[in-house]
Design a protein that fits this description.
heterodimer, A: alpha+beta, 2 domains, 2 helices, 17% helix, B: 7-stranded mixed β-sheet, 3 helices, 18% helix, 32% strand
């Protein structure tokens, strides 16, 4: 009962908003079809690793890697971001994140001011031999949004391996999923 | 009697739904709250929020860098907050480095609603010159510890900048009250 009232009102609010949107489109372009939602540019995104939603055991911790749309319009993302950890000067530490296979990739729409996320797995580098891993403290995470050739940076102060050998793969990332990230 | 209760309940539901509806419309960015809605919304708890320093949006001048300190509502309901967060930088073990942040009185404080999945911000000023040239024995911080207004539990975010280790007369962090939206 409450739900149906709420749905109706929300639907009305949405319809009103869409109506206004339509009016704006009509003035800017005399075309019947509304423009498709554009792909998110790097400049319209802020990337961040949510420490507070970190969870895990057995030497691997899962963090949401969030993508916040800081632009003024909705935009879309689809697929895997390119992720690596760097020093404060942007020098890459070890191997870039490997992709966690996904059954289906979906196009995710992020409203202006909203967030989407991928799941970043970080292997505690103490699991590796120090001589092989060559541990160092990272300062930043460097993230290429799917299909983009410029990267966004976020703070990231965890231990990284400097070795680029396959054995010392310490970051993994999933494809982008809807909504702000929560502990997995 | 039953009808009365039902009507009252429906009215409350409608009011709540209206609150939700406007939050959806404003999902793009947190908005200053109309007083009538604020009375219906819960205050944002530490558990509702993720805090993060928006590295990519940093702007620097004359020895001070300005970052948006973002507050993302990771809960499933709109919440509201008012005023200044309590802030300090820590090492990886949570040990505070130097002085806590002082308050900046740049803006008139007001209630800010943060929609589910939405983000509000506070202006964070980082005194690069103070850290580097005042003799405060800098070391690299790992985390920023943030008490949201009127909360007694802190949220943590990554923060890998040099910080003072000597306190007392080396304030290097300053923060303004929380404002709507992601951008400074």
């Amino acid at each position: 009962m409450f739900k149906s009232i709420r749905r109706t009102l929300v639907a009305t609010a949405t319809a009103l908003t869409l109506g206004l949107g339509g009016a704006v489109w009509a003035t800017s372009a005399a075309s019947a079809a509304p423009a498709a939602v554009p792909t998110c540019s790097t400049a319209s995104l802020a990337v961040w690793v949510d420490v507070s939603q970190g969870s895990g055991a057995a030497g691997t911790i899962f963090y949401p890697l969030d993508f916040t749309n800081t632009g003024s319009r909705a935009c879309t993302l689809r697929g895997y971001p390119g992720v690596s950890a760097t020093t404060a000067n942007g020098k890459q530490l070890g191997r870039a994140a490997a992709r966690v296979p996904q059954d289906t990739a979906a196009t995710v729409t992020i409203p202006a001011g909203g967030s989407a996320h991928a799941v970043l797995s970080w292997v505690e580098v103490g699991n590796f031999t120090a001589s092989g891993c060559q541990p160092a403290t990272a300062s930043l995470i460097k993230v290429f949004p799917p299909g983009r050739t410029s990267a966004a940076f976020g703070f990231f102060s965890l231990q990284a391996c400097q070795s680029t050998k396959p054995l010392y793969q310490y970051l993994y990332v999933t494809a982008i999923q809807p909504g702000v990230g929560h502990a997995v | 009697m039953r009808t009365t209760i039902r009507r009252a309940a429906a009215a409350v539901a409608a009011a709540l739904a209206l609150g939700t509806g406007s939050a959806v419309v404003a999902a793009s960015s947190a908005s200053a709250a109309p007083a009538a809605h604020s009375t219906l919304l819960p205050v944002c708890t530490a558990g509702n929020l993720a805090v993060w320093v928006n590295y990519g949006a940093g702007q620097g001048a004359a020895g001070t860098f300005y970052y948006p300190l973002e507050f993302t509502n990771t809960s499933n309901h709109t919440c509201r907050t008012w005023g200044w967060p309590g802030i300090s930088a820590t090492n990886a073990n949570g040990h505070q480095l130097g002085d806590a942040a002082q308050r900046l009185h740049y803006y008139t404080p007001a209630w800010v609603n943060i929609a589910a999945g939405g983000t509000a911000h506070a202006l964070l000023a980082y005194g690069n010159a103070e850290v580097q040239t005042s003799g405060c024995k800098p070391t690299n911080a790992s985390l920023i510890k943030v008490y949201a207004p009127n909360q007694h539990t802190a949220d943590l975010g990554f923060f890998s900048l040099p910080a003072c280790t000597v306190g007392g007369s080396h304030v290097y962090l300053r923060v303004a009250n929380i404002q709507p939206g992601t951008n400074i």
